[in-house]
Structures are given as C-alpha cells and as structure tokens.
Amino acid sequence: MSADSSEPNPVGTASDGQFGRLRERLTGDAGREQPDTALVVLAAAVATAVLSPVVWLGWRASRLGIGEAIRLAASDTAVDVLANSLVLVGVVTAASVALGVPLAVVTVQTDLPFRRLWTVLAALPLVVPSYIGAFAYVSAFGPSGVLPDLLTQYGLGFVTPYLPTVYGLGGTALVLTLFTYPYVFLTTRASLLSFDTTQLEAARTLNHSYPRAFRRVILPQIAPGVTAGALLVALYTLSDFGTPAIMRYDVFTRVIYVELNAFGQSRATLLSLQLLAVTAVILALESRVSADTSSGYGSPASASPVVSLGRFRWVVTLLPAGVSLFTLAFPVGILTMWLVRSGPGYSGGGLAFEPAFALNSAYAAALAAGVTVLFALPVALYAGRSNSLLARAVERSTYIGYAMPGVVLGLALVFFASQWLTQAVGVGVARAVYQSLPLLVFAYVVRFLPQAVGATRSSVAGIDRDLVGAARLLGETPSGAFRRVTLPLISPGLLAGAALVFLTTMKELDTTLILHPTGFTTIVTYIWRVQEAGYYGRAALPALVLVAVSGLSMVPLLKGSDDA
Amino acid sequence: MTDDAGNDRMADNTNMTHDDDTTTGRRTYRRRKVLAGLGAAGIAGLAGCGSNGENATAEPSSDGGTATETSGSEAVDEAFIEEFRGSGALAQNRDIGGTSIAELPNLSGDLTIYLGGGEGGLYRDLIARFENIYPDFSAQIRASGTADAANTLINEGPATPADVFWSVDAGSLAAVAQRGLTATLPSAVTEPVPLEFHPEDLWVGIAGRARSVPYNTDVLTAEEVPEKVMEFPNADALSGPMGWAPTYGAFQAFVTAMRVLSGEQATREWLNGMQESNVTQYSNEFLVSNAVADGALDAGFANHYYALRVKAARPNAPIDLAFTSDDAGALINAAGAEVMQASQNKQLGFTFIRHLLSAEAQEFFATRTYAYPMVPGVPPVGGLPTIDELNPPSFDLTKLSNLEPTLRLMRETGVL
C-alpha cells in the first residue's frame, strides 16, 4: 500500500555485463529473467487457490441453464436489487464528491484556521468501520434508540411513530457517505497538492476570479483525482454489507446474505455474479483513470494557501467542523454514552462479552496474517523478479480479493463446502471442511492477499540482486542465499503486510459472519449478535475497540497521503 | 449461576415439598371470559397485581384451579429454582412442579446447537446456566432467523455440524423434520408435554406463544373486542387507531394461519379491510404493545408476551390482553427442539431437551420470557389464561412453514 520511494532496480536492465554472464553460467536456470521453477509453481499455485472460489462460482452458475438464469435475473426482486444498488452507489458517490472536494479545497488552498487539524480530522472517518457507524446511528435514531427514549422521557412519546425512519435508502446513504467520503477527500487533496499553483496565479493575472479560475484551470487538472476517489467510494459502497444490512436497505450484498441464509442457492449465485459484473465495470473504469493520473508535470507543487478567506475564515470552518461532528464526535459520543449507561435487558451469561471473544479474534487474525504472508511471499518474489506475462497474470490474479465482496466469497465457500463436497467427495470430508477454522482463514487470505503482496513486493523490488549473486558466488545454496540475504532485506515489508492483514482481519465483518465455526465467537460476530438483538449497550466497548484497531490499520494509508 | 446452586442441585430435594408455600403460592385461573380481560375488573389479573403490588397471588385455591396441579409430588428446590426465575411482580409467589434438573442425567460433552430466534439472548443465557452447572458440558451455538436456520439445516443435510435445532417457531421445526433429517425422540423426552406439541415425536414443544389482541383499558373492555378476528375490520369498537407489525415473523405466521383456515380471498379482504380502517405499521410487536400502553393505539396485534413485558417495565400502564376464539387470531405457536439424525451425539441431544423441559427451565421461560410453559406443573405468569382455557384453532403448525404465498399476498395488498 505505502508507495516506496525506491528507485527502479537498474540491475537486470542495463548493467548486464561480465558479472551477469558469469552468474548465469554458475547458477544455471536461476538467472534473473527466469526465476526458479519452484518459485513459479508456488506462485501459480497461490494464484490458482485464490481464484478458485470465483471460478467455482462461475462454473456453478453455468450449470443453471440459460432459461433459468434469465428468469431469475429478470425477476422483480433481481431488478429491484440492481436498481437499489445503483441508486445507492450513485447517491453515495455524488454526496461523497460534494463533501470531499470542498473539504480538500478549503484545507489545501485556503488560509483556513487550524488547517492541519482539519486535514487529519477530515481523513479520519475512514478508521470507523462503516457498520460501526451504522450501528451508532441506528442506536441513536432507531426505534429502541436514544432519541425515542428521550422523547418518551419528556412525555413526547406519541411523536415517535411520526419521525422519519433511520432505515432505508436515506439512512444507508447518509452513513456510507459520512464514512467513505475521505476516499474522495484524500485523492482530491493529493491532486491539489501536486497542482502547479503558478497556473492559478497566471489565471488570476488574466483577471479571472477564483471561482472562475477554479473551474477553468484547477478542476480539469484535479478531475482524474476526484474521479479516482469517487470510484473507490462506488466500489466500497457496492461491496459493503454491514451498513445496508443494519439500515435494512435491499442492495446486492444484503439480499445475497438473506438468500444465502435461506439457501436460495441459484438466486444467490446469480445475484453474486451480477454484483461481480457491476464491480468489474467500476474496476475497469478505475484502472483507466488511475493510468491517466500519472501524467503530471509542471513545476514542483506548492502546499501554501493561495486563497485568503478573509472574514469568512470562521464561517468556512463550520464545514469541516460540522462534518467531523457527524463522522467522529457523534458516533464515538454515542458509543461512549452506551458504554457509561448501564445496558438494558437481562442479566446473565447469554449476551455478556467474554475476553475469549477477543482472543478468538486475535487468534484467527494471527493465523490469517501468517498464512497470507506465506502466500504472498512467492507471488511477490516472482512478480518482483520477472516481467513476463505469466508473472503479471499471477500478480494480478491475487488482486481478486479487492474485487470480490466478502458476501460473495462467503457464499461460494459455503456452497462449496456444505453441498458440493458432500456430493462430490463425501459427507466425511464435507463435515471436516464446512464451518472449519482453516476455511475461514482461507477466506481471509483471499480477501487480504493484495495487501500483503503490495507491502512485500515493494521491498522485493528494493533488493539489489547483485547481493544475492554475491552470496551465490561465495558458495551459498539458493535457499541459503534466500535465507541469509533476501529474507532479512524483505522482512520489514513482510512484517508490514502481516500487521496490515492482522488488523484488517480483526474488523472483517461479512466473511467472518458467514464462515465462522459454530461457537467460535469473535469481537465482530459478538457485535453483530448484540446489535441484532438490540442490546446496544453491550456492543459499545467492542465497537470502540474495533475503531481503535481499525485506526491502527489505516496508519499506512493516512501516512502515505500525508507524504504526498 | 454459582457454585452454591450447583451444590443445592446435588442435595437430595425429593422431600423438600414446601407445604406452606404451596398454599399461598397456588393460584387459580378463572374462566377465559373473565381472564381474557386480564384484570380489567381488578382481580386476579396482571393489572391488579401490577398496580398495587399486593395481590400477586391472586385468589386462594378454593375452587380447585384447573391447570396448576403439580404432576407428582416432587416440588422443586426453591433456592435452586430462584436462579432460573425472573424478577418482578409477575415472578413472585409461584409454586412449581415437574421434573427437576437434579433428577435428570448429567449433561456432558460438546453439543452443537442451531438456534432459530432466541428471545434476544435469553436462550443463550439459559444454555450458559447449564454450562455453569455442568463443567463438562459445552455448547456451540449458531443463531439465525427461524426460517434461515431451517433452510440451512435442510441444505446442509447429512453434512450439518448441528446436533440440536432449537427454534421459536414450530413451522421451522416441522419443515426440517419433514425432510427426514431428525431423530425420533424417546418417550422420556416427550412424556411431560401434551401430545399436540409433539405430534410425531420428531420435535417437541418447549414453550408456547399465543396470538393476542393487546388493547388500551382506558378505551376498550375485553367484551368489546370481537370474538372473531375476521370481524375486526367492521367492528365499531375497533374504529379507533390500531397497530400491527407486518414485517414481523409472528404476524406473518398469523396471516399464514388465516390463509390456511379461511382461504386466500377472505385473507385478502381482511388485509384490505384493516388497511381501510386506520391501522398503523410498526417494526415489531413490542412497539405495537408499547403504543397501546401509551394510548397512541386503541388496540393491536401481538404475541401475548409483549404486553407482559410492557407491564413488567410499566406496572400501571393501561394495557390488557384479549383473545379471539377458534381462529387464526387465537393461534398458539410453539418454540421447540429436535435432534438431528446426522448427529454423532444424539443421546446428549435428548438429555439436553429434557433439561429444556425441566421444571427450572420451564420456570425460566415462564417468568423471563412470559411464554406458556409446556409442562403442566409450571403455570404461566400473571393471571394469563392457561393453554386449556384458550380456544386456539385446530391447526397443523407444520403449515406455517409455507410462508411464500403469505408474503406474496401481503405484498399484493400493499401491507408489506
């Protein structure tokens, strides 16, 4: 994730001289253009493994029959779900742009008071998992929330039925916007920072007002950045399960989850493929946009403010302050209030939080981190050493985790393990795999492999390969050279990747919910259970813990954006 | 649950019949007509015991109450049962019979339980109590909606990790049993329960939940509520604001029952009729009952226990229950349990269900969830009519699993 500032490795492109040829003779086929066969096989195996769920899903769908598929895809429910999803994505994306771009402009280009503080605060909502945000809002404005309570206390209970509901499109869009607009904010901010302000000055000398200059000079140049952020928001909105589930709005993820629970297999499978198709469209758009953004030139960027707000300085401050109120102060305040207030309901062990849940979370996350790094290592080494088509295909295929919503992955693995294995292999095997910890860990690996590969790959790219050659010349075996030279050099990247996977796994909702072994309660499944039962007070502490965990996992991202 | 309780359990309690408690504690249930008013006249009812807190024991047992004869003489260790009993006026002065946990075989080993519903965590609470009593017993729980859990079990088939399915809806239990996925329960398990709640011994009822009409006692009397639910749309007494919760499973089960008993066309007319007569939608039936107590509604549709929960929180609230007669409005659904045929651990599953039917667990359901106990020795709380006094329709609960046509009907009429 964090972009390394390392130079592209010159070795292997230009400096091939005597030394290189000597090494090739000494090491046989282990030259840098042809990595170890074992490495290639390992990397390809990893790619196959993580691709297998989506391939399996496609194969299942292909056996449905065209007629059945069309009937299901054209059914009222399916059309509604598609429409709902697209509306939600549209609203959230537009609202995020409306929120993120002005925030970026005022924090980069104006003399806003406390600019650095507002910059950090505007990016910070990313650390609140959106389902925690949804939980906070429902526990405040929902039917058994704080607001109806207060109204009843002051004798206004009869008003409650007439209040607008927190559920549905409105609430879902509100919460998703509040907690995903920072994607737009961050990418826009990066574009603005790399924007050459002398152009703005030129426009101003041509007597353009700032708004006009903004429209004619700035906007065209930051548009790719804004678009990239907007597409990230769209992607997140499409794949998010927790928020629409809590806010009861029927989009792909929620309906797939419902169908999955009801084992409506063909419908769930088809909806999953539709969701993947919509996701693919957004990803295709995104890859085109991000290819464009690299074409920046001009004089070095300036981060100094260019617009003086004058006496409006404090008025404009209301924007970031107001946003932070709803994204940070309010949810944390509500959770803290629930924490302090003694929880309602029944005493007893049924819904009490147990430290074992946190241990389970940490245990599963540690396993996921370890296995993910093991999987990432061959892929990163291979992709870092070879530019062949196969190497790029292998690396790309591990990015499936970014494109595959957790609900879809969970669905594929549940049907695979419970039904297909029973029929194809036998009940004994199915019982061993279905709802097992290894299956859950495998799902985490598929989801979060890109993070580990990204972190490891940048450190692989930073290795001077002559060092490995030197070790070989000095008599090390290939594995000895790997152990004594390569591994120590890439271990920071490996550790960073493992830490990132660990933290992201801790807060992963959908796959955990669907695939956890029966009786294996984690922080996340516990939060889900008590919020479904309406015991908001009991969810407060674990939710705050997750916000903290999530905050740690965002450090590289936020730091990276700060460096930009 | 403490160690003390565990020790108490071990104590020999067969001779611990508390005669003095028995006389004060025994309660009487008057006939349905009066009780349907549930204290409307200030006697023997919930409102009575709630409002002044003195009359919780109702009348002495002079006329030989019908449903409270304890089966056999084994009264249950009071100190132990207190651990299971709820608190508040509704849970006071109770006399309990039935088989105590102490008389049952020990629970030992791992049991995987699929929960359908679960009373907002109360079922987990009860399981945790069992785990505390038996250090060797450990339950793995997977909870979801009733229909979801049933579908999961049906699709997992023989690969299911579940040993026991415990659900708040008999339709879901029957749906799984119909597929031949459950084991026949031994008579030792089903014997304490009336036959209609273990029709083929493939599942057994654990606690009952009756459909009811909560009404505001400032506006209505029990007599004004029609005997037949089909008359509601045109009843003058019910022309005021009414409430229902159409997204709620229990309400949908009620509509399913109406569809089966009265036919699709009559149900459609009823749904349309109710909508034309000032009915407000709520998201669950607790809120309906709460709104009745607030005076926002004159009456509504809800499971019986929600009104008791309102009462437990607000003893003076002007809310009471009426029951219709021999129609969908008087349906009694059962929470129950079954043991999976694929389970490697059936004996433990059977013993577990016997624990759910123990006097202590039944007292737990009666006083904490305000459900109808399934064991004759344990009375329902707070002057509720006994199951015998209600007049439910004769209805095969298995049919509740056919929900799809109900949802379609509710969507077509714009109720959903």
UniProtKB/TrEMBL annotation, chain A:
Transmembrane portions of the chain: 39-61, 81-105, 117-142, 162-186, 217-238, 268-285, 314-340, 360-383, 399-420, 432-449, 485-505, 511-528, 540-558
UniProt cross-references to Gene3D superfamilies, sorted A to Z: MetI-like
Q: Mention any Pfam family matching this sequence.
A: BPD_transp_1
Domain named ABC transmembrane type-1 is located at 82-286, 358-557
Any one GO cellular component localisation term in the record: plasma membrane
Where does this one sit in the cell?
Answer: Cell inner membrane; Cell membrane
Q: What is its main location?
A: membrane
Q: Which PANTHER family match?
A: FE(3+)-TRANSPORT SYSTEM PERMEASE PROTEIN FBPB 2, INNER MEMBRANE ABC TRANSPORTER PERMEASE PROTEIN YDCV
Family, similarity comment: Belongs to the binding-protein-dependent transport system permease family.
Keyword annotations of the record: Cell inner membrane, Cell membrane, Membrane, Transmembrane, Transmembrane helix, Transport
- Recorded protein name is Iron(III) transport system permease protein
Q: Name one GO biological process term.
A: transmembrane transport
Residue span of the signal peptide, if any? none
Stated membrane topology is: Multi-pass membrane protein
Indicate whether Transmembrane helix appears among the record's keywords: yes
Q: Does the keyword Cell inner membrane apply?
A: yes
TrEMBL record, chain B:
The keyword rRNA processing appears for this protein: no
Read off the PANTHER family from this record: SLL0237 PROTEIN (PTHR30006:SF24), THIAMINE-BINDING PERIPLASMIC PROTEIN-RELATED (PTHR30006)
Instruction: Give the residue ranges for region: Disordered.
Output: 1-29, 49-73
Q: Does the keyword Signal apply?
A: yes
Q: What is this protein called?
A: Iron(III) transport system substrate-binding protein
Polar residues bias (residue ranges): 52-73
Q: Which domain of life is it from?
A: Archaea
| Keyword terms | Signal
Q: Where is the composition biased (Basic and acidic residues)?
A: 1-24
